[in-house]
Amino acid sequence: MSAGRHTGLVGIGKRLWNVARANVSDFSSAFSLDPEVRERRRLDDELEREVAKEVADTIGAKAGRRARRVASKAEDAWERAFEEARARGRRGAGASASASEIEGWYRTLEVPADADFATVRKSYRRLVAKYHPDKYAADPEKYAAATEVARKITTAYNGLKAMSEP
């Protein structure tokens, strides 16, 4: 073992010892009867609460909360879309589709009604790449719209795919 590495380990051990010692002294001061120690502890706690409140009101904290809300809504939307698609898959998407619904699927995928499945697949991939929600993650309104468009494109593709399978 090199001397530099050994010194680093000793430094870490010393730091850990200092942290443990500080925690023990903090613990003992919590039960101290000395009024000065108790007042210092109260002031430290008050300062800690004030700093936490100030940090919670920063722009970064607010942006983080907003981002978590948007991400949560997006996850909920994808979960609902997944469950709806799974429910449609169980009943057989192509089996119960009306002629107007099938025609709508072709329109959604921007292909003629007599297009073969290879053309449908190619159009599906092009449209999903164009309207994928991740491209609009910075704007929650555009993200929600792109999610809905992507869901409709996927529904149309899955319906036509189910019809083309033997």
TrEMBL record:
InterPro entries linked: DjlA_DnaK_co-chaperone (IPR050817), DnaJ_domain (IPR001623), J_dom_sf (IPR036869)
Top-level taxonomic group: Bacteria
Record-linked Pfam families: DnaJ
Domain J residue range list: 104-165
Gene3D superfamilies per the UniProt record, alphabetical: DnaJ domain
PANTHER family: CO-CHAPERONE PROTEIN DJLA
Name of the molecule in the record: Dna-J like membrane chaperone protein
